């Protein structure tokens, strides 16, 4: 019998479709079945670098369906595993009339001890859902970055690496290639039975952040030039982007998007013709890094009265000697096109918070000007060192991009692009604490907020927690705004203030949308399992 190496994962769903992703031990046919409900769909695997994957697309489901399913490999049932103690996994489609609950978070270290990283919010969510009524389940799970840590390795990952390359071979104590990445995903998503069950039964969407590739990924042109000067970087970046495309991005796409995707077609063709599409995947991944305008990782889906826009704020950056942008021109035009009215709620997910605590925002805008030469060449070199050392690379560090997005959002909130939504919310992670910030902008009809939930499992400790707590205070922003002003950085085009938080514990947030109402709750894992409420806020209604 062919074993499942990873999965099944319930990925993209709509009102009538669902997608199951798996990795298998060898080439085979994978089927998803529940004959009582008329479900029987299959797909052959495709192969890349000796690993075998399948995406099974199920159509014809009812809106709001909750259909138990089995996974068969070459006719043998391989999931669910007998006696695993969890309820049967279910295909869960969306109900456009039933509201929408989206749970989200970022920054999850796995494996590791409770003493190192605390309790896992995903494990705790699984424990809560085992006995929860269906009305209490999230409709979607959105993971907004750092699903794996390719540059901060666990002991288990170090042991795996020692088995395949000599001590001292670069990169030291980091993932090196596609094979290393496949093991990172296995450790993150397979070895905890609760998380494996959760991913099999809650539809999941993702976007990467820096640690999915490497800390400070694409922070600046200088960073990119330094990385590409390393002889080991090509295998690292192609392995990281290629594995992300298979393990994460493929499941974000709708069946229609996948059917028209040239990369998916090329991989399946190469796999059928030569037995392995690894070379095709590597060529695509290298081009995606060197020519980011040619690949779109961002995506948008409409569900009932809600539009979810998930923005790639890492790979699509514009970094040249003359221009800097969080998004390149093509990517920004795509985002601009997606930011429209006529919806009840507009959600914009970006791994990096758009609205930071004021002190951090002003520090990053000042640093961008300094690194760009506002205080001379010598200070510019120092500014670049500070940027990389202090991770000053959020939206505030791309001031023109920040202003362009503000213009779009305010235009939608004023009803200039169709009827204004009740709420416009940024959903983000990255910074290892959680909070709510509200925009204070005259003349807008929508409630505009920044909702941050981070980490799922990787809390700040000691001096880092204290420094960020101080940065969240209102008084801390003034000195950094003065520095930014001295560097001729204009005042931000919108005003905002933090109203809830910060909370520094591991957490998962759930945004609940019903009609024109929107609220959010943050939960933290508790000793002994499950979740306990950490904070709650009403956005509209």
TrEMBL record:
PhoD-like phosphatase metallophosphatase domain location: 137-220
Coiled coil: none
Chain ranges of the DUF7800 domain: 1-90
InterPro entries xref list: DUF7800, Metallo-depent_PP-like, PhoD-like_MPP, PhoD-like_sf
SUPFAM superfamilies xref list: Metallo-dependent phosphatases
Protein known as: Alkaline phosphatase family protein
Organism: Actinomadura syzygii
Lineage: Bacteria, Bacillati, Actinomycetota, Actinomycetes, Streptosporangiales
């Amino acid at each position: 019998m062919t074993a499942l190496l990873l999965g099944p994962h319930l990925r993209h769903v709509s009102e009538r479709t669902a997608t199951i992703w798996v990795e298998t031990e060898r080439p085979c046919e994978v089927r998803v079945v529940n004959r009582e409900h008329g479900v029987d769909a299959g797909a052959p695997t495709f192969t890349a670098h000796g690993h075998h994957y399948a995406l099974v697309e199920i159509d014809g489901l009812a809106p709001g369906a909750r259909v138990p399913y089995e996974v068969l490999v070459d006719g043998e049932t391989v999931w669910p595993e007998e006696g695993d103690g969890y309820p049967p996994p279910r295909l869960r489609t969306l109900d456009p009339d039933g509201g929408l609950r989206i749970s989200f978070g970022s920054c999850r270290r796995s494996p590791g001890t409770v003493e190192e990283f605390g309790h896992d919010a995903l494990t705790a969510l699984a424990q809560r859902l085992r006995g929860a009524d269906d009305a209490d389940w999230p409709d979607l799970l959105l993971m907004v970055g750092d699903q794996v840590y390719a540059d901060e390795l666990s002991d288990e990952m170090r042991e795996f690496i020692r088995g395949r390359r000599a001590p001292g071979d670069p990169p030291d104590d980091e993932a090196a290639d596609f094979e290393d990445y496949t093991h990172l995903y296995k450790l993150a998503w397979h070895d905890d039975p609760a998380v494996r069950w959760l991913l099999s039964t809650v539809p999941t969407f993702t976007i990467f952040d820096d640690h999915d590739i490497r800390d400070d990924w694409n922070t600046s042109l200088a960073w990119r030039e330094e990385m590409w000067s390393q002889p080991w970087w090509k295998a690292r970046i192609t392995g990281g982007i290629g594995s992300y495309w298979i393990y994460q991005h493929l499941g974000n796409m709708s069946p229609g998007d996948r059917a028209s995707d040239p990369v998916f077609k090329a991989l399946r063709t190469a796999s059928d013709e030569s037995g392995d599409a690894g070379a095709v995947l590597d060529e695509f991944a290298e081009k995606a890094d060197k020519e980011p305008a040619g690949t779109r990782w961002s995506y948008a889906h409409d569900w009932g009265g809600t539009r979810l826009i998930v923005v790639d704020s890492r790979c699509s950056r514009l970094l040249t000697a003359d221009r800097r942008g969080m998004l390149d021109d093509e990517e920004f035009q795509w985002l601009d096109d997606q930011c429209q009215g006529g919806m009840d709620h507009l959600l914009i997910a970006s791994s990096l918070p758009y609205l930071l605590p004021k002190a951090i925002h002003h520090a990053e805008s000042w640093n961008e000007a300094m690194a760009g030469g506002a205080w001379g060449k010598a200070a510019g070199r120092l500014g670049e060192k500070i940027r990389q050392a202090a991770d000053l690379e959020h939206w505030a560090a791309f001031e023109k991009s920040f202003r362009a997005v503000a213009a779009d959002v305010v235009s939608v909130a004023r009803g200039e692009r169709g009827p204004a939504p009740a709420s416009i919310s940024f959903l983000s992670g990255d910074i290892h604490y959680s909070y709510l910030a509200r925009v204070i902008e005259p003349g807008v009809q929508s409630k505009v907020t920044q909702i941050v939930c981070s980490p799922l499992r990787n809390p700040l400790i000691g001096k880092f927690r204290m420094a960020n707590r101080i940065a969240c205070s209102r008084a801390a922003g003034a000195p950094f705004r003065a520095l930014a002003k001295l560097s001729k950085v204009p005042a931000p085009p919108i005003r905002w203030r933090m109203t809830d938080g910060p909370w520094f514990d591991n957490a998962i947030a759930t945004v609940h949308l019903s009609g024109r109402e929107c609220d959010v709750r943050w939960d933290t894992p508790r000793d002994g399992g499950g979740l306990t409420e950490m904070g709650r806020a009403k956005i509209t209604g």
